[in-house]
Amino acid sequence: MKTIGVIGGMGPKATIDFLNKVISLTPAKKDQEHLNMIVYMNPQIPDRTEAILKNEESPAKALVESAKLLKDAGVHFIVIPCVTAHFWLEEIKNSINIPILNLIEIALEKIKKQAKDLKKIGILTTNGVIQSRLFENAFETEGYEILVPEERIQTDYVMKGIYDIKMGKEPASVKLLFLHACKHLIEKKAQIIIAACTEIPLSITDTDIQVP
Description:
single chain, Rossmann fold
């Protein structure tokens, strides 16, 4: 069985949520049928959005070192449950010779297979992802339109909710912030909403909103 490497800590609660989902979605009937995983929980990786927007300390070195540590530990491929960190994905890939899953490409392929006729995609994500146009670069060439919240909604609801969770607040306490942002995107005609920051699914699920 292949071993999955996980670069975690961005943030810790989001990493645990990712691991819980892997376990829940694995059709195992006993311990031995679960997936092998090596998780490097590294919350000291510098803030990704601050690096993109304000030219603060880059997380690239820490991400590369984390990937090399997992490679040396014997993993066969790596997952990074932090969408903003995908800004440095190519740099990380170039540092090792094992695959790294691209969460943005996975989201695109899932939409193409399951909802190919829905072309207006709302994104709840960090300012860093919006600034770097990671989703636009992947989706627009496939005929999709990316919708993001207006600046006030992004600052007062999306980013506040994300950083409140990172600061230790219970995800349920910020649920209404994310739901308000979802309503805003639906009013902008979003047909699908992607929770493109791994803190957001800690608070809301697809059953909480009117669109997939």
